[in-house]
């Protein structure tokens, strides 16, 4: 019998389902390691914000941060496929809540439309704080982005440079509301 997918719960994959998807789409170990660290940062900050009274869907942050690079290995040689392909996969599987966050996590997304929800901001910002599987500063991450992608074209370099101050603003908003410094103290306790 037909059952409508009107329950939000069905539109957000469980943690187990996220790991199944990472395996099914053959996401390489190094990308999974990055994803786990992004998830740790995103969830740490999400819980801090929630403690301060902000409305945040922790399940959504959890799933989106785990799946944000689902397509990274498939789109390495494409100019603009990353994020888009993963969002399409997630939409096709019925995970409509997660797809837009995954679509908007790429560095230059903030140049085209502002991040509106906490969930979008947290996944985006957490990704900007993790290089490989290590937590770094936003400045260090952008240094890496310029080195890795900025050399590809002048346009890429311009966009990376334009995105950095916007990311610093997002950082200021998240950290001040969460009551946490840039050092993310306490992250290892949680």
Protein model, in words:
This protein is an all-alpha fold and 190 residues long. The chain has one domain (11-178): Hypothetical protein af1432 (Orthogonal Bundle). 59% of the residues lie in helices and 2% in strands. The chain has ten helices and two strands. It has helices at 8-11, 15-24, 29-51, 58-67, 84-92, 99-103, 109-112, 118-128, 138-148, 154-178; strands at 130-131, 134-135. A two-stranded antiparallel ribbon has the order 1-2. A hairpin with a 2-residue loop joins strand 1 (130-131) and strand 2 (134-135). The chain is globular and about 40 Å long. The model is unreliable at 1-8 (pLDDT under 50).
> Mean of residue pLDDT?
88
Structural class: mainly alpha
- How many domains would you count in the coordinates? 1
Question: Under the CATH scheme, which architecture would be assigned?
Answer: Orthogonal Bundle
**Percent of residues in helices:** 55-70%
**Count of alpha and pi helical runs:** 10
Series of H and E elements: HHHHHHHHEEHH
- Give a count of the beta strands, DSSP E runs of length 2 or more: 2
Task: Give the overall shape, derived from the CA principal axes.
Answer: globular
Uncertain runs:
1-8
Strand order of the largest sheet: 1-2
Rg over CA atoms, rounded to whole Å, is: 16 Å
Strand content: under 5%
Task: Please give the alpha-carbon distance between the first and last residues.
Answer: 43 Å
> What is the name of the CATH class?
Mainly Alpha
CATH topology: Hypothetical protein af1432
Please give the largest β-sheet.
Answer: 2 strands, antiparallel
């Amino acid at each position: 019998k037909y059952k409508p997918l009107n329950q939000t719960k069905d539109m957000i994959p469980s943690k187990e389902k996220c790991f199944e998807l990472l395996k099914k789409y053959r996401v390489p170990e190094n990308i999974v390691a990055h994803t786990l660290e992004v998830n740790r940062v995103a969830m740490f900050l999400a819980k801090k914000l929630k403690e301060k009274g902000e409305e945040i869907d922790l399940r959504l942050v959890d799933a989106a941060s785990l799946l944000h690079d689902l397509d990274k290995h498939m789109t390495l040689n494409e100019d603009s496929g990353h994020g888009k392909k993963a969002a399409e996969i997630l939409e096709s599987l019925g995970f409509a809540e997660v797809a837009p966050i995954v679509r908007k996590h790429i560095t230059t997304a903030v140049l085209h439309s502002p991040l509106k929800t906490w969930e979008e901001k947290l996944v985006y910002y957490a990704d900007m704080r993790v290089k490989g599987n290590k937590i770094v500063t936003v400045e260090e991450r952008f240094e890496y982005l310029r080195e890795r992608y900025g050399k590809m074209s002048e346009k890429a370099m311009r966009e990376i440079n334009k995105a950095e101050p916007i990311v610093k603003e997002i950082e200021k908003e998240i950290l001040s509301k969460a009551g946490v410094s840039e050092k993310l103290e306490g992250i290892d306790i949680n």
